[in-house]
Amino acid sequence: MDFTDKVVLITGASSGLGASIAIHLSKLSAKLVLVGRKEINLKKIAQYCEKPKGIKPHTIVADVSDEGNLERILNETIEEFGKLDVLVNNAGVLAMGGIKKTDMESFDRVMSINTRAVFQLTMLATPHLIASKGCIINMSSIVSTRPNTIMLAYNMSKAAIDQFTKCVALELAPDGVRVNSVNPGFVKTNLIKDSGLTEDQVDMVSKNMAQSNPLKKIVEADEVAALVAFLASDQAKSITGCCYPIDSGKLLV
């Protein structure tokens, strides 16, 4: 795969899956626009991305829950590179709690970042993606279709992303724009750590998840990054409107 001269915008790129996706695509010669809330982390990831091919990413410090920031992100991308080929909607937050133990503040934050920001950023990016015959990758989760009782708002947000993916794929297909989602199972990233679990609890969850998966392993971030790269590449030029699980077989049990 070769992303030479392809401009790729990745939200939530300062850590976790976003950082892994950025590093993977940097090895494929992509021109990267990295968006994240943590400036220090974002700069470190940008340095990693510059090493493989010497292509310096453009970094944007921004919280995607701020509506004004989304316009700024798109404007800076076009000003820097003149076009947009791939949009990776990766930024997301996780809130624990079911209907018995939650609050509207948590719900609103999850939906604002995981769903509303994706909707608006995609809307703003659409004219540029039509111009480049580009594509969109939305980061979803297997919990979009696999219910549980501990992450209600998060599950809802990802179910919305899957439907968003299919609807936008159908609408933009005549314009030559492809839209797909990647639906990972458990991946040990900062998203899990930031949910309020201790390091020991995260390790315990990781071990339990690995044992419960048919493949007896958890999903690695670089595996997810490789799937994103494939779906964003010309090798997937006939794939649109699909939600791709990558879960070590979790949906089978």
Automatic annotation (TrEMBL):
Domain of life per record: Eukaryota
A Pfam cross-reference name: adh_short_C2
Protein name: Ketoreductase domain-containing protein
Gene Ontology BP annotations: lipid metabolic process
Origin organism lineage: Eukaryota, Metazoa, Ecdysozoa, Arthropoda, Hexapoda
Gene Ontology MF, one: oxidoreductase activity
Keyword Oxidoreductase part of the UniProt annotation: yes
Ketoreductase domain ranges (all copies): 6-185
Keyword tags: Oxidoreductase
Extent of the signal sequence: none
PROSITE patterns: ADH_SHORT
